[in-house]
Amino acid sequence: MGGSGMPIPVAALDNDRMALMAMRGILPQLLPGAQWLWGVAEAGEAVRLALAPDTRPRLMLVDMSLDDGTGVGVCRRIRRRTDRVLLLAVTAFSVDTYADRAAQAGAQGIVSKADVPAMAAALRTVAAGGTFAPAGVKAPFGSAETVHRRLEDESEGSSSGTDGGRAKLGAKETETLRLLARGLSYEQIAAQWGIAPATVRTHAHRAVDKLGAKSLAHAIAIYLSR
């Protein structure tokens, strides 16, 4: 993409404003030809800017852990509406925590914030139309076009029962999905609630059944959809 000589508009969503400033400063070195478009800390604002024609970036970095939502949810909301924004998930935690969900939500790759060489490789690969996963990560990242079509199909199918099923979730089942979506493990949720991890797993499995999901990851994706 950069070979055409056209600038590559880049935006970022990160709840750490210092991280946004750092990314803006180093971006020209990581991705030659990049043009910084905007950086915001709020999920809703990022979705609005990404979908508006006059503020839509070509490539958007999405922090996976946010104060007012989840990066997975942001990716999914954007990808359901458009395939014109390339999405790169970034995280300060282990990439394994979010890789599969980010891929299913429409991201083209994931990379650790701490790995600058990998960040450069990821930006260049995704900007060129490819997909990126660090060594050892097997997440099924796909093209923006492919995942956009899949999420559109899921959205059409949800009107015949998925959303209604979501309303039937109990409070603990809903909260379990929310915390799993934020990257917490069964053990961490159990410690937070003062219960056994097996009980948390039961809440998760019930949520999968009630939503008619194919897997826990699919149930989380349904929960995160807007």
From TrEMBL:
SMART domains according to UniProt: HTH_LUXR (SM00421), REC (SM00448)
CDD domains linked: LuxR_C_like
GO molecular function, one term: DNA binding
Disordered: annotated segments: 146-168
Residue numbers carrying 4-aspartylphosphate: 63
Residue span(s) of domain Response regulatory: 9-128
GO BP annotation list: phosphorelay signal transduction system; regulation of DNA-templated transcription
Source organism superkingdom: Bacteria
Domain HTH luxR-type: 162-226
Protein name (Swiss-Prot/TrEMBL): DNA-binding response regulator
Native species: Bifidobacterium moraviense
